[in-house]
Amino acid sequence: MAEIDGKMEELRREIGSLEVQKSVFQTVIRVYDPSFEISPPPSKARQASSRETASGRVTKLLKGKNNRHIVLDVLLRSERPTTTAEIAEKFASEADLGSEAVRLESALTSRFSATLNGLVKQGLVRQVGAIEDGRRHLWEISR
Question: Are residues 34 and 64 located together in one domain of the fold?
Answer without folding.
Answer: no
